[in-house]
Specification:
Layout: H1 2-33, H2 36-69, H3 75-112, H4 115-148
């Protein structure tokens, strides 16, 4: 039981904390310090690791939370379980579908100079930012629910 509690709390806080840091500090700093193309290369190399960390921590937090609460699910634990499930879904869609497609479009733009590739990249980038923002907000809600209402 102690292992599951620790796994849940560490996984949740590390995942949400890393999302917050990269979204609020890491990526914006790269675009302030580096040239746009270099910052894009940097974030492009970080994102696979960012999402990979999310896959590992997200699954750990989801499974550990379910195992901790499966025998005594209440409205707060059901809500938290929904938040954690949505966070994982958004992270997997973003990391395995949206971001790789956006990267290919950006690469095609740099290779050809065709602005239509860049326009499509910007649309996917916007979707990625929304999914990332929703994942972060749900993570913050999950941290709040855990601290206020959940006991296990």
């Amino acid at each position: 039981m102690l292992f599951l509690k620790s796994l849940y709390l560490y996984s949740l806080t590390l995942w949400v904390g890393s999302m917050f840091f990269f979204t609020a500090v890491g990526a914006p700093a790269a675009f302030k310090i580096l040239k746009k193309e270099e910052a894009g290369k940097y974030t492009g190399s970080v994102f696979p690791k960012y999402f990979g960390l999310g896959y590992i921590l997200g699954l750990a937090v989801l499974v550990s939370f379910y195992l901790l609460t499966r025998d005594a699910l209440n409205v707060f634990s059901w809500l938290n379980l929904a938040f954690l499930l949505l966070m994982n879904i958004f992270n997997f869609i973003n990391g395995l579908i949206i971001t790789p497609k956006a990267g290919l479009l950006k690469f095609s733009f740099y290779q050809t100079g065709d602005k239509s590739y860049y326009d499509r990249f910007l649309k996917l980038h916007g979707i990625s930012m929304v999914l990332n923002g929703l994942t972060l907000i749900l993570g913050l809600f999950s941290v709040g629910l855990t601290s206020l209402y959940l006991t296990f």
